[in-house]
Design a protein that fits this description.
single chain; 3-stranded antiparallel beta sheet; 9 strands; 31% helix
């Protein structure tokens, strides 16, 4: 893993005695980073509608080996790009967009694929109907969502 380039893609919370890193693409990537940096895997919750991490094991991310989870009430479902089923939803969205768009299918697919990958897309479903597509980072501010992420805690020396 190219650490410096990899770190550029992570969110960094620099606190007094330690630094927290979030935004890992997978649980395995967080585990590897923790090992390489002599850090500790921790679970964080973002539950106040902004970007203030709190230590929180409610989602059981370590036990389930997950890197990201959202809870926003029974009527909402957040589907992350790494979740099973994301591709099916994304394919349906592409078909819907194609029916509304006059560009060629190759152009539509390639253009949106790049955008979705760079933003770490999340599909938001409300009562079994598509509500929106957002980024992983922006999901912290939506629908009074409780966002849980795996993090690596590195103690300052």
């Amino acid at each position: 893993m190219e650490t410096s380039n990899f770190e550029d893609k992570l969110n960094k919370y620099d606190l007094e005695t330690y630094t927290l890193y979030t935004g890992f693409p997978s649980f395995a990537a967080a585990e590897q980073y923790a090992t390489e940096q002599n850090g500790e895997l921790v679970e964080l919750g973002f539950k106040d509608g902004n970007d203030n991490p709190q230590f929180d094991t409610h989602a059981g991310l370590v036990e389930k080996k997950l890197h990201y989870h959202v809870e926003a009430g029974a009527e909402y479902k957040f589907i992350h790009s790494s979740d099973p089923g994301f591709k099916d939803y994304a394919d349906e969205l592409q078909k819907l967009k194609a029916s509304l768009d006059k560009t060629g299918p190759e152009e539509r697919y390639l253009a949106s694929f790049e955008i979705e990958n760079t933003e770490d897309p999340i599909i938001v479903i409300k009562n079994d109907h598509l509500e929106s597509v957002t980024s992983r980072e922006r999901s912290k501010y939506l629908k009074q969502a409780n966002v849980y992420e795996i993090a690596v805690k590195i103690v300052k020396s």
